[in-house]
Specification:
Structural class: mainly alpha
Low-confidence stretches: none
Number of strands: 2
Number of helices: 4
Order of helices and strands: HHEEHH
Radius of gyration: 18 Å
Strand content: 5-15%
């Protein structure tokens, strides 16, 4: 049972990382209003706030933390894994959407 839970926890951490799929030119046309110029002429863009990564990372981290912490009631491992996974998922979600053209 322990190996099964560890395998499921590792799978939950790996699958969201493999879901990043590059979009085609036709798919990119839907997002053509993500960039604009402000009143000073600087290029601005809409950035993701990282909520999706926070939730997915928190759930995956909680599952992984629970499988690693095998002593006692496992609350500390679950909470620690949720916090660490949430912060890591949030940063991955925010950093994966940066534009190459210098959006602020």
């Amino acid at each position: 049972m322990r190996k099964l839970m560890l395998a499921l926890g590792c799978t939950a951490m790996v699958i969201p990382a493999t879901m990043a799929v590059p979009i085609s030119q036709a798919g990119a046309q839907r997002y053509k209003y993500r960039e604009w110029r402000d009143d000073r002429g600087r290029l601005r863009c809409r950035k993701p706030d990282g909520t999706t990564g926070l939730v997915v990372g928190g759930v995956a981290g909680a599952l992984l933390g629970r499988t690693i912490d095998t002593r006692g009631d496992r609350t500390l491992g679950t909470l620690g894994g949720a916090v660490a996974g949430g912060l890591l998922g949030r940063e991955v979600d925010r950093s994966s959407q940066r534009s190459r053209r210098g959006c602020r």
